[in-house]
Amino acid sequence: MDQRDIIVIGASAGGVEALRELAAGLPADFPAAIFAVIHFPPYGTSFLPEILTRSGALPARHPKDGDAVTPGTICVAPPDRHLLLEPGVVQLSPGPRENGHRPAADPLFRTAARAYGRRVIGVVLTGNLDDGTAGLAAVARRGGVTVVQDPADAAHPGMPSSALANVRVDHAVPLAEMAALLQRLVAEPVPAPREERVGDELDFEADIAEMEPYALHADIRPGRPSGFSCPECHGVLWEIQDGELVRFRCRVGHAFGPETLLAEQTQEVETALWTAFQALKERAAFARKMAKKMESRGNEFSRRRFMDQAAEADQRASVIREVLRGGGRQTIPQQVANAGEGMD
Looking at residue 194, what is its pLDDT? Predict the structure, then answer.
């Protein structure tokens, strides 16, 4: 009878400390292979394997592409590569970012669910926004066990809260109880299959992360066109109804949960505001320069016209400046809407 011998873990903010505590609670003879994703910047250096090896009894490493799946070890996704699983093999992929990250939890969870089904335990730890939710749903659909850190116990409750709100979660426990729970789960025999019938979407989306040519170039995408654009490449986003969860993916594979998409759109608005602020200040400076030139020529009419243009640009830049300064009191879209009420 199968055992649960594949554990996939996703975390973000606060995840290093959470993984350290979890690794410290696992014994040297732990029989499962552990795979972990924490969001790291693409050009950063991760010392997480060394930290985890020092913290507990299990060796940790950044795997190489094609490494064998090895029980009793912790594989940590390296920066700027998705960590993916095939039967018996670890893969590293430069595939499209999901939820704004590479590595991301969703591709790891999704490929583990496809390759190992009921043998998988999916774990979502502390972190912001909603990476891991769609992947944990895939683990549940393929009959795996779903575990989240109790949001009240998490340093950043966004990721576990999103998973609880959208996925059938089997266990929600404080971090202090997580190691004991995993030891119990890997020791239990896997019960009879309970997975739901799954269409081609899981395989298709897993193949996107693996950069399979047919998946990247296919004209037909899962879901339906949403009318929204991808923050990464500005292509059309397709809206995918994944059980109770609504999520989005573009033609080339960038994927977003709803909370991440909203955060990315807010960042785009801020970038656009800074660009507009810069353009308006340059317009005002240029208009004042031209006004001085007209003044030196004795052309009062043109001088006043340029000064009026400078004043108009300064006034519009002041509105944008107030929006940017007020980021702690309202979201930027709210500020834009409020600031625009008096500008007809």
Answer: 58
Please identify which of the residues 5, 106, 130, 131 carries the catalytic annotation: 131
Report whether 145 contacts 167 (CB < 8 A).
Answer: no
Convert the pLDDT of each residue in 191-235 to its tens digit. 777 555 555 688 889 999 999 998 888 888 888 999 999 999 999
Is there a contact between 159 and 133 (Cβ–Cβ < 8 Å)? Answer: yes
User: Which tokens belong to 306?
Assistant: 């340029």
User: Per-residue pLDDT tens for 286-315?
Assistant: 999 999 999 999 999 999 999 999 999 999
- What SS3 string covers 106-161? HHHHHHHHHHHHHHEEEEECCCCCCCCHHHHHHHHHCCCEEEEECHHHCCCCHHHH
Quickly tell me which residue has 């989005």 as its tokens: 248
Task: For residues 71 and 213, give the distance between their C-alpha atoms in angstroms, rounded to a whole number.
Answer: 31
12 catalytic per annotation? yes
Tell me the residue type at 231.
P
Task: Write down the catalytic residue from 39, 82, 171, 254.
Answer: 39
89 closest CA partner among 33, 140, 43: 33
Active site residue 131: yes
Catalytic residue among 5, 12, 106, 153: 12
195 burial level (CB within 10 Å; 0-12, 13-18, 19+): middle
Q: Which of 317, 322, 333 is nearest to 267 (CA)?
A: 333
